Amino acid sequence: MAKIIFVVPPADPEAAEFASALKAAMADRDVTISDAKLSTLLFEIRKYDLAHFFVRADGKSLQLAKFSGKIRVVQTLLDRPAKAAEAQKLLFGESVAVFSNATMEFLQNQKPGFNATVIPPCVHLPDVTKLASGSEIRERYHVGDRMLVVALNDAQNRKEFDSFLYIAREYNRRDVFRLLIPVYEKNKAAESWRAKLQYSIEMEKLDAVSILKGGEDLHSLIDASDWVVSIIRNRDEKAGSLEFPLRAVEALLRGKPLLCFQESPISEVVRQFKSNWVTKNTEDFVRESRDIQKEEKRLEEISTELARFARSKFDPAVVAAAYKEIYNRLLPNSAVVQK
Questions:
Q1: Alpha-carbon distance 40 to 47, whole Å?
Q2: Are the CB atoms for 312 and 17 separated by under 8 Å?
Q3: CA distance 226 to 149
Q4: How far apart are CA 9 and CA 14, in angstroms?
Q5: Taking residues 104-128, what's their average pLDDT?
Q6: Which residue(s) pair with 96 in the sheet?
Q7: CA–CA distance, 169 with 201 (Å, rounded to integer)
Q8: Helices 246-253, 299-314: inter-axial angle, 10-degree rounding
Q9: What are the backbone dihedrals phi and psi of residue 75, each rounded to the nearest 5 degrees, phi first?
Q10: Which of 112, 207, 212, 310 is the most buried (most CB within 10 A)?
Q11: Does residue 67 register a pLDDT over 70?
């Protein structure tokens, strides 16, 4: 049996979560996960037949051009390079996987003839019986009879801040929505915009909107929500989340309607289920929120259909099968896949 090593960036929880879910779906394979630094990795990797690198666009420690011996190399790009120069340095694997067609097109424009496989990430869903109940969450955050909406990102730039504030004002004015904004990023930009948004919420008394303190159980929040929102706009800043944030993947697998802007990479998948959930501007975003609210009686039916659709894209078994095909091509004489 072929020995495979998954190499994830050090101190990258979301990358490690994705790799762990993928490994669990390959329980019949000999897979090891490592977040070792380069000096240790060069020695450790010799023991394996295939190295699968999960690479950030700024992952300088993983820019390895060649490996000696029989080692075959696969790459998964966890986010999209912001600059052409980054793209040129990143690609060293014999086979490369990306999350979206948009990233594929970007890389092809930078490197003519380049080809990759589009494979979205997967995530392991926590046992729902171990989550806080929906009634407990709604009581804790004073939701009442309103629709509970959970944001899947925090603001990283002016355009995202403006969008958050516009949506917060409209949700508050209509008094049928309760919007919770958890803490996702702890970098300087996110903290600065978060403070500005908090100030605006307090000064304008937008009581239907709360920025949380951090450390909340995101799994329980998502499970209790009526729908979720991704307010990512023209983002070039370095973020801790993947190109397809795992909490967005989790929400879709839970059957939660997801509203997003067309700039968001996850829109590529959302559009395949319901194109109206991908919006061009904040006015459309609020209008679509009202439309979902009007379909409250159908949300359970919509949720069931959405969860089924999401499993066809993000279920760990589906994602693992796609990667096993790549491994088989690189290691044709090894037992990588059990039929």
A1: 12
A2: no
A3: 6
A4: 10
A5: 89
A6: 75
A7: 9
A8: 130
A9: -125, 140
A10: 310
A11: no
Q: Dihedral (C-alpha) 108, 113, 114, 116: value to the nearest 10 degrees?
A: 100
What does the block give as tokens for 280? Answer: 């061009």
324 phi and psi angles, rounded to 5 deg: -65, -35
* Rounded mean pLDDT, 49-67: 72
| Biggest CA-to-CA distance, the chain | 66
Please check whether residue 261 is in contact with residue 279, taking contact to mean a CB–CB distance below 8 angstroms.
yes
- Which pair of tokens denotes residue 34? 């490592």
Is-same-fold flag (3-122+315-330; 128-313)? yes
Helix (H) or strand (E) holding 3: strand 3-7
55, 15 contact by CB (below 8 A): no
Q: Among 70-79, 145-154, 296-305, which is the least confidently predicted range?
A: 70-79
The domain defined by 128-313 folds into Rossmann fold (3.40.50)
Tokens 């509203």 belong to residue:
259
Neighbours of 37 (CB within 10 A): 10
- Residue of 241 and 35 predicted with greater confidence: 35
- CB < 8 Å & 24+ apart, contacts of 105-114: 106/80, 106/81, 107/81, 110/81, 110/84, 111/87
Distance, in Å, from the CA atom of 299 to the CA atom of 277, rounded to the nearest integer, reads: 14
Residue spans of the domains in the chain: they are: 3-122+315-330, 128-313
More confident residue, 70 or 97: 97
CATH class of this structure's domain 3-122+315-330: alpha beta
Q: Which two tokens stand for residue 43?
A: 């020695």
Burial class (CB in 10 A: 0-12, 13-18, 19+), 246: buried
